[in-house]
Design goal:
- By secondary structure, the chain is an alpha/beta fold.
- It has one domain: 3-Layer(aba) Sandwich (UDP-N-acetylmuramoyl-L-alanine:D-glutamate ligase), CATH 3.40.1190.20.
- Helix content is 35%, strand content 21%.
- Bound molecules: alpha-D-ribofuranose.
- The site of alpha-D-ribofuranose has 16 residues, from strand 2, helix 1, strand 8 and helix 8.
- Its cofactor is Mg(2+).
- Belongs to the carbohydrate kinase PfkB family. Ribokinase subfamily. Belongs to the carbohydrate kinase pfkB family.
């Protein structure tokens, strides 16, 4: 039987502005289009897990406003249990302003709003969920003390802990490293976490190994079109990405994380789960927006079968 997934994190309404190229400091450019799309790293990961048929529950906070209501409604459509998401009176729902250029690259500014109210007390009120779920995943758009409390609690109960360190902090408390079963930074986040400057494959490998030495059990560095580098105590392996033309990379990492945890919950091996997640995010980058870009299970299975039939 598939295991259960708990995702604890942020929900944002994304205000997406498409433009030919990003403005320089002090410059004005004309945008092409502005859309509102459901997002937030936590909600995107839950949405991906739900759409891929994971049994997923989300913990997070929205404002007592129409944006919050829309975010919950959209997330529920993926099959995610949204009944524990809290409405915070007097706080606006989190928002993110996202610039996307013609190459599909993005820059994001998050205004946390109600996500800031996702506190330790709220996790304590929902403590039974820790016992009821098998995999617990966090990102870093809610207060750090909540994340660290959640990681300690999940680990104490013997749950599998996944931390997507996005946005990346400078470091983590010393006792946290060894409680993480899977740490999933992208290359920029990995460099920040490991105090390195230059983006080279050598530094990325060294950084991943440094994290393993700190006590993290498995590190998966998402490298965009170069794929995913997997490192643990005994292995190091690069899983190449499927070649596609990217339209918008927003939430590609979230889609990867949501798909990866779903794969693990279905008891795929970690290699299979990485390939499943790679395939999911390769579809996400070919579409615009955050949750709007995430593929469903049938589509993914079809693509997977096509690859198998083609001997890839
Ligand atoms: O990872 C993409 C997400 O980051 C966006 O949906 C935005 O809300 C920010 O949280």
């Amino acid at each position: 039987m598939d295991k259960r997934i708990l995702i604890i994190g942020s929900l944002n309404m994304d205000i997406v502005i498409e433009m030919k190229r990003m403005p320089l400091i002090g410059e004005t450019v004309l945008g092409k289009n502005l859309t509102y799309v459901p997002g937030g790293k936590g909600a995107n990961q839950a949405y991906a897990a739900g759409k891929l048929r994971g049994k997923v529950t989300m913990l997070g906070c929205v404002g007592d406003d129409s944006l919050g209501q829309k975010l919950k409604e959209n997330l529920a459509k993926s099959g995610t249990d949204v009944s524990y998401i809290k409405n915070i009176e007097g706080k606006p729902t989190g928002t993110a302003v996202i610039y996307v250029n013609d190459d599909g690259d993005n820059s994001i500014v998050v205004i946390s709003g109600a996500n800031e109210a996702c506190d330790v007390e709220y996790l304590k009120q929902n403590e039974t969920l820790f016992a009821e779920n098998d995999y617990v995943m966090f990102q870093m758009e809610i207060p750090y003390e909540t994340i660290f409390y959640g990681i300690r609690k999940a680990s104490e109960l013997g749950k599998t802990v996944i931390l997507n360190p996005a946005p990346a902090p400078d470091s983590l408390p010393e006792d946290i490293w060894e409680k993480i079963d899977y740490l999933t930074p992208n290359e920029t986040e990995l460099l920040k976490l490991t105090g390195q400057q230059e983006m080279t494959m050598h530094n990325i490998r060294n950084g991943a190994r440094w994290l393993i030495d700190k006590g993290v059990k498995n590190v998966l560095v998402t490298l965009g079109d170069k794929g995913v580098l997997f490192v643990n105590d005994t292995e190091e392996k690069l899983f190449p990405a499927r070649k596609v033309t990217a339209v918008d990379t927003t939430a590609a990492g979230d889609c990867f994380n949501g798909a990866f945890i779903t794969g693990l919950a279905e008891e795929m091996s970690f290699e299979e789960a990485i390939m499943f997640a790679n395939l999911a995010s390769s579809l996400a980058v070919t579409r615009k927006g955050a949750q709007s870009s995430i593929p469903g299970r049938e589509e993914l299975d079809e693509l997977s079968n096509m690859k198998i039939n083609a001997g890839l």
